[in-house]
Specification:
- With about 375 residues, the chain is α+β, with helices and mostly antiparallel strands.
- The strands form 2 sheets. Strands 1, 2, 3, 4, 5, 6, 7, 8 and 18 form a 9-stranded mixed sheet that branches.
- About 25% of the residues lie in helices and about 30% in strands.
- Bound molecules: pyridoxal-5'-phosphate (PLP).
- Pyridoxal-5'-phosphate binds next to helix 6.
- Its cofactor is pyridoxal 5'-phosphate.
- One of its GO terms (molecular function) is branched-chain-amino-acid transaminase activity.
């Protein structure tokens, strides 16, 4: 049942795709998340009928009833993944099966329809194939894919929706940060996720809840916000959309443990594996913000970095918060362990290094 054959996408080509000249110009400097490809994948769900009408069609605004459940009760989840142009001109993706699995877990937490992994993967693959000319080929460029699902039953009663739209859009992107190290604001007044809440689900609501803290970070001249645990406001959890790692002076790599309030990043998971195989001591353990400040002052904390699909691996140069500012290492992104892990990961993702884990999958 759960096979790609079951989901045969109907292709309705864009009647007026972007010209080659204009696309070339857009791909030269795409930025992040502002340029989009010609097409999108759309699949509909209705209780009793299941998933139906999978299509690849022209990217266009979607019509929603003003009573659609997503507009009122925020039943929405998404994924973020990338397609790369390999050295031989082919197209590859990094662990798409892990995104498909996480999407199902997010859907379950938000009481949404289950999207079979085969359907998720087929939608992504078909879209990448159709819009493959939109994959930029620069060093830190890729085609960012955004699968998402929204509840679209027109009903104001509070209950899980009986209808859903599963859509994939694609956006050619360059680097997420402009380079060097980022500065991080430690949020003491707002939390992102609480035990029993939706912190481990990739849902838009988590982001909505993080934006005021992110705005506060910007006001404090910081690039990103770091959230602490909701119960004690003491334990470091993660950033608004990235996981966090620390490198200690004995070479140990540490990251907060998952446990319901932290998004289980696929980049996080890959880095843990790569670090272990490089012979680093790896610890998933709680780390308090007080200890972090103390270790930065004593020199025990050597490096810190954020990681995720969009930003890959980004050095953290300083933390700023109610207890003042601390600089990590040189503060400028010249961090040898971070760089080694970043190079190892990017090398595998782009097919420049051997992939003993079977993480890289050919799309086309
Ligand atoms: C997506 C996301 C991450 C990173 O996950 P990756 O799979 O590595 O891209 C981290 N934190 C949050 C809150 C996220 O939404």
């Amino acid at each position: 049942m759960d096979s790609a054959d079951q989901f045969r996408f109907t292709h309705i080509p864009h009647p007026a795709p972007v010209s080659v000249a204009q696309r070339t110009e857009l791909l030269a400097n795409p930025g992040f998340g502002r340029v989009f490809t010609d097409h999108m994948a759309v699949v509909r769900y209705k209780e009793g009928q299941g998933w139906h009408n999978p299509t690849i069609e022209a990217r266009a605004p979607i019509a929603l009833d003003p009573a659609a459940a997503v507009l009122h009760y925020a039943q929405e989840i998404f994924e973020g993944m990338k397609a790369y142009r390999a050295a031989d001109g082919g197209v590859v993706m990094f662990r798409p099966d892990a995104n498909a699995r996480r999407f199902r877990q997010s859907a379950e937490r938000m009481a949404m329809a289950d999207v079979p992994e085969a359907l998720f993967l087929e939608a992504v693959r078909e879209l990448v194939k159709v819009d493959r000319d939109w994959i930029p080929s620069g060093e830190s460029a890729s085609l960012y894919l955004r699968p998402f699902m929204i509840a679209n039953e027109a009903f104001l009663g509070v209950k899980p929706s009986s209808e859903y739209l599963f859509i994939v859009i694609a956006s050619p992107v360059g680097a997420y940060f402009s380079g060097g190290a980022v500065s991080v604001w430690v949020s003491e007044d707002y939390t992102r996720a609480a035990p029993g809440g939706t912190g481990a689900a990739k849902c838009g609501g988590n982001y909505a809840a993080s934006l005021q803290a992110q705005r506060e970070a910007k006001d404090k001249k910081c690039d990103q916000v770091l959230f602490l645990d909701a119960a004690e406001h003491r334990w470091i959890e993660e950033m608004g959309g990235m996981n966090i790692f620390f490198v200690m002076d004995d070479g140990t790599l540490a990251t907060p443990p998952l446990g319901g309030t932290i998004l289980p990043g696929i980049t996080r998971d890959a880095l843990l594996t790569l670090a272990r195989d490089k012979g680093l001591t790896v610890r998933e353990e709680r780390y308090s913000i007080d200890q972090c400040y103390e270790d930065a002052a004593s020199g025990r904390l050597k490096e810190a970095f954020a990681c995720g699909t969009a930003a890959v691996v980004t050095s953290i140069g300083r933390f700023r918060g109610h207890r003042g500012e601390i600089v990590i290492g040189a503060g400028n992104g010249a961090d040898p362990v971070t760089e080694g892990l970043r190079d190892a990961l990017i090398g595998i993702q782009r097919g420049q290094r051997p992939d003993p884990y079977g993480w890289v999958q050919r799309v086309d």
